[in-house]
Specification:
The chain folds into two domains: about 5-120, Aminotransferase class 4, branched-chain amino acid transferase, N-terminal domain (D-amino Acid Aminotransferase, Chain A, domain 1, 2-Layer Sandwich), CATH 3.30.470; about 130-280, D-amino Acid Aminotransferase, subunit A, domain 2 (D-amino Acid Aminotransferase, Chain A, domain 2, Alpha-Beta Barrel), CATH 3.20.10.10. The chain is about 30% helix and about 30% strand. The protein has helices at about 25-30, 45-60, 70-80, 150-165, 205-220, 230-235, 265-280, and strands spanning about 5, 10-15, 30-40, 40-45, 85-95, 110-120, 130-135, 170-175, 175-180, 185-190, 190-195, 220-225, 235-240, 245-255, 255. Strands 7, 8, 9, 10, 11, 12, 13, 14 and 15 form a nine-stranded mixed sheet that branches. The protein has a six-stranded antiparallel sheet with strand order 2-1-6-5-3-4. It is globular and about 55 Å long.
Length: about 280
Amino acid sequence: MTEWCWLNGQVMPLAEARVSVEDRGFQFADGVYEALRVYNGRPFELAAHLDRLERSCDGIRLKLPIDKPTLTSEILKLIAHAQLREGLIYLQVTRGPSKREHLFPKDPHPTVLFYVRTLAPLPPVGKGRPYALLSVPDERWKRCWIKAIGLLPNVLARNAAADAGADEAVFVDQGFVLEGSSSNVYAVIDGALVTHPLDGRILPGVTRQIVLCCAQELGIPVQERAMTIEQAKRAAEVFVTSSTRELVWVSRWDEATIGDGVCGQVTARLHQEYRNRVQRATG
């Protein structure tokens, strides 16, 4: 089945899409991105993702080259063209091609692209395979609120986790849990949902914000605060979130066993409420 891409206003098979070898995204990782899930042919929380994309562009001093209403319209057209029902949208903006030097080009021509890809349906709430986590030192830059395409530290961390037989790496700084290599991290401690605050050292996840709203609706106390790795490993429940994976429960963190080998009740309740929101938004 052909995968389709929108590149600077042109629709083409993804396999035929090309950018310049001097694109600053390629040579400097000078760009930002978004990834979100499509359910029943409809992108979930597209407006929130485009808002974050614009903030990320502002964070690297690049004006979003296409206004959000137009970008929304073009994304919906590509989904329809590809006849995508369940899948992924990947969206990227770079400063575009220019002669290689560190100074920004005076007259940039940004590269904007997005493509769609089919994803397998997610398992029922509480029935999927749990994750194992590996703690790694946080060696990233200090502007993690920007969803930048320069992800080499995350890639190295994720591969270290795979080498250790784990599913996700979790960045730890001076003994405190921050986030995963491609996810936000939560623990249920004394009945409260605990996750690191938005202090610039973690990505403000779209799914994270929805989960916190779900907790409020369900009457689950929320604490956005720093937690130590020891506190997290002793938690009754741990889970991670991302737009493409929703909520994934955790059964092991380094050498520690989390919970009693099944998806915890708080995690399951939050995941079901999240699914309810998806259903209401996408039918």
